[in-house]
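Per reviewer request, we include the raw input and output of the structure prediction for the construct analysed in the revised manuscript.
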Amino acid sequence: MPQTTHNRIETAIETVDREITYVADERQAFSRFTTRTRELSPEQTASGTAVGGDTMAVSTGGQQLQSNGLRSVRDAYEETVMAVPHYEAVYGESLAESLAAEFGTAVATQLLDGQQLTPVLRETIIAAGERAMTEREEFGETLETERAALEEIRETLSEIESRAAVIGESIGAATESAQLGQYDAELERLETDCEQLATQRQRLLHRRSAGRLSGVDADSLVGFLYDDRAETCPALAEITDCLGTIRRQRERCLR
């Protein structure tokens, strides 16, 4: 059977593969950061309230120097989360911006301007790191599902297009109406298969989101992955092209 190519799907798979690598790297980075933070010994404040929820208030009773604990947390963050190979290209954020995006402004402020790594602050940071790991793990699973879906569409389209091409070659040599009618019926079945493939793809896209990730500002997985492409739904674009080819072949059967 004739070989078919689907460059838009191939490019989409490459994009998904890149994001899978990014997410895996970030999850490992947060794992290392959380481990290093857990190994630090917390410090007790003389008085005050450590971070909890969205607010923090610290009473020091006078000017104090910042502890080594907070500095160690910042160093660990820079040497793990901010050290992933794609960080500058994808995020390019300062330490303060990244901490605020991942942990919230209250925790970021305490890490940058506070005096001590209190027990509650340490546990809050560890919990935030574990949450970031879970987010990456879940998003990675979503990306793997998207990759599998793209591969399935590519394989199904290849089968449909190859069969349609064979029928198309036969149409030109057909001399009887009955024969043309048989070819048209086969093409109609392929057209139905293609339409069902498009419907399945649309349903899948509409029920999935990119989730909550630092640096992700998209309402859908498709928007996150493909907004910079000429076709923001590359798989649907390939299916539409296939439908167009089949319908043109069916028109030839009407001669």
